[in-house]
Amino acid sequence: xxxxxxxxxxKIYRHKIGASRSSDEFLLTPSxxxxxxxxxxxxxxxxxxxxxxxxxxxxxLKMKKIGSKKEPKEIYSSKKFRAYPxxxxxxxxxxxxxxxxxxxxxxxDKDKPEFENWTDLYPEGETVLESYSITPKYLIIQDKKDxxxxxxxxxxxxxxxxxxxLPEVGNVSxxxxxxxxxxxxxxxxxxxxxxxxxxxNPDDLAKATxxxxxxxxxxxxxxxxxxEAKIDFYTSKDGTKVPIFIIHKKGIxxxxxxxxxxxxxxxxxxxxxxxxxxxxxxxxxxxxxxxxACLRGGDEYGEKWHQDGMLFKKQNTFDDFIAAGxxxxxxxxxxxxxxxxxxxxNGGLLVGAVITQRPDLFKAAICAVPLLDMVRFHKFLIARYxxxxxxxxxxxxxxxxxxxxxxxxxxxxxxxxxxxxxTAGENDTRVDPLHAKKFVAALQNNPGQKNPIMLYMDFxxxxxxxxxxxxxxxxxxxxxxxxxxxxGM
Length: 489
Fold this sequence. Notes:
By secondary structure, the protein is α+β, with helices and mostly antiparallel strands. It is built from 9 helices and 26 strands.
């Protein structure tokens, strides 16, 4: 915290376990205190990579042989794109979005590592490339089509072989190859199925029916037998198709009267994917509909989807969320007296924005650890690092854009907003709790505010993390009691 406040970049050292800290070898420090840096050895490639950049771009990527006393050589630099290298034997593989919003794989010889020698191995396609892994024979690709991840198989020259048959229906969380044990590991989950890990002999990837073996399955004490889920799509204000996940009990009646909780985030390239609903099952098993909107600002459709929900296009995120609520009503899942929303951090900004823009649409809201005074957000804690996402309020045109949606500044006198529970952590080092306090005070003192506006301060944790299991359960119970009471459950 002290180094951040003084704008001092952190330093990276190599430490030998068991040795004195005084003998640590200095490796790297970012040239800009707002940047992050990393140093990593390519275990099977014999080189060390040195990387520096921000959330959006790899400003400098350097390389040298492991143990070499020479200065590392820069092989890539960009203020716009990201590049993640992996060295294996005589090749360097690069996962990048360089001129490729959906990402691609590039490759070069280790003795010609400079960017001008990189060539496409897996070119950018219509679907989003999420990750890859390399076996002695194959290139394994994990891509995402309409928010569902899958696995495809290529040879090491980038020639397509087949779509890999998965062990069950669900979403691929990750796929990797472990050279030490010569096994492929595949992690899967779904809305109603918890995390599972499967293994496979890499030579079996090309078989028509690979024989996956269950390696690990998470056990949960929740009855999911009466719950079903689907991925649907709705149209936002500007005509954009947006995915939405809808989970409810089997045999639900579409009578427009179901208590419904809508969740969203929409920012920082953080997307939603089909995954186990976990503790939300208690809400669904009590008759609730749980919906997750895949808003612009996330990574559901690559970097362009992210860019379409940031800076001057941030309003798209709010429009997407509002359209999700309208869709749930138009499809007879619920109505305005039975619809609640929830979001935290950047999702707290989302909730604050939509309850001030469309207070008529929602019955209740949970606004957790939120950013709400967007005109001054960059002046507190580490929030100045988020200027590339939201814009700089010290610049006129960006200030005007931010002011147009800043929840604190768009509270309308005489307008009654939905019943809202705002939560904040007194020890939050990311989002200053002043946002929550100011917003609640302003709403509570609005003459037109009839619905209760409540502030819950957590003095034992920060940005929602660092809690004991007991505290986590208590906070979840508090939020669910609030939502279920407001929705008449």
